[in-house]
Amino acid sequence: MGRWASVVVLVLAGVAVLALALAGVVGSNGASATRPRPSTSGPPGDSATPAPDRDQQQLDALTALLAARRHAVLTHDRAAWLATVDPRDPRFQNAQGAVFDHLAGVPFSDWSYQYVGRAPDLSSQRRRELGGEAWVARVLAGYRLRGFDTTTSYAEQDLTVVRRDTQWFVASTSDGGTAPQPWDLGAVHVARGDHVLVLGTAAPATLRQYATLGDRAVRQVSGVWGTRWSRKAVLVAPRGQHEFGQLLLRDDAGLDQVAAVTTGDLGGGSGAAEPSGRAGNDRVVINPAAFARLGSTGRRVVLTHEMTHVAVRQSTTSAVPIWLSEGFADFVGYSGTGVSRRVGAGDLLAQVRAGHGPTHLPSSDDFDPTRTTIAPSYSASWLACSLIADTYGTDQLVALYRRAATAPTDGSAPDPEQQLESAFRRVLGTTTAAFTRDWLRYVNRLARP
Hints:
By secondary structure, the chain is an alpha+beta fold. It has helices at residues 52-74, 78-82, 90-102, 124-130, 182-185, 204-225, 241-247, 288-292, 296-315, 322-334, 341-344, 346-353, 375-392, 394-404, 416-428, 432-447, and strands at residues 24-26, 108-118, 134-145, 153-164, 167-172, 189-192, 196-200, 233-236, 260-263, 283-286. A five-stranded antiparallel β-sheet has the order 1-2-3-4-5, with helices on one face. The longest helix is centred in the first third of the chain and has 23 residues, at 52-74.
């Protein structure tokens, strides 16, 4: 998560966390969608549960339709894409043509669809508007970026499909819930650095600036964390804060505190991540409004902070307590900037002087921008990691993190607090409680004039 603003988002709003085991796939092997578990609701317009043959016929038609759309994207065939769109709706045809144009420059290595099940029935009025047999399919639209992703990124879409004579078409993407992607928001530009790919609706010049900052961040992170990660990252650059919120499936509340967010899938739940539990499709999403308010040092810290999350998530297998995750990212971000701790943590130290200092290491609630001002929590976490580095050395701080972020080998569910306690004892020869006392004394000492 970004300094001065950001929130750690491991997996956003259920976009990728769905029961994929129930879904058929339209992917690289051309497999067809298979019938899901029996539905309690029939297709729109039919009050009875559909006959199995009809149900499967609809799924077979959907599979063919999605396969055609996939092929159109991967072969850059605009006409083939539009051939899947309802010919009776010129406005939707134009909108879908624009979406295809928006994604034309994105370097996809794969584009796929995964059928999840039937969405709620269309209203009788909506069925009359469509004027044909129609239903809404809930799918996951997946993609990979060439040279960067090792796993597929999925976004949920509700696709309304309608039959015209003997052929089926996509008639709408707005009859249910659809998670927007950058190409749904406008024309997507692309910029490349030595280590990063930047894509989004922001101006090309802005993307190039982000690419330069991203390359520098990769080098700085590798100097502290090491090189046992891909040293590649994808940055997403929307035009404004509203688009930033759309991509995160959030309203604007609290987003003015958030300069950037790292999102993606971790193993052990979504079916989209590496079997090892490591992330393989992370995105650093930048809030242009908050980012623009920062000076050059602030922007450097923010992107290095986020790049630290990318590196850590690619090379560890378990979550750690949020103060360690955010504090370590800030520790790397501030390294070499010349910003003193009294200056960088001024917000926290002012609270201490006013008698409102922390009594415990920050928790998840302390990083929720809809509930509180989050900057002091970043400062508190940064000072905690800085104290570890001062006392034991940077190498031991890294070793502590790596051990705490290693999932149990016996297959049991990770417990971040217990794993960190074990790491404190084994790596540093202390305990969480003893360290917390030392940290509180350190924060109070820094707050003195």
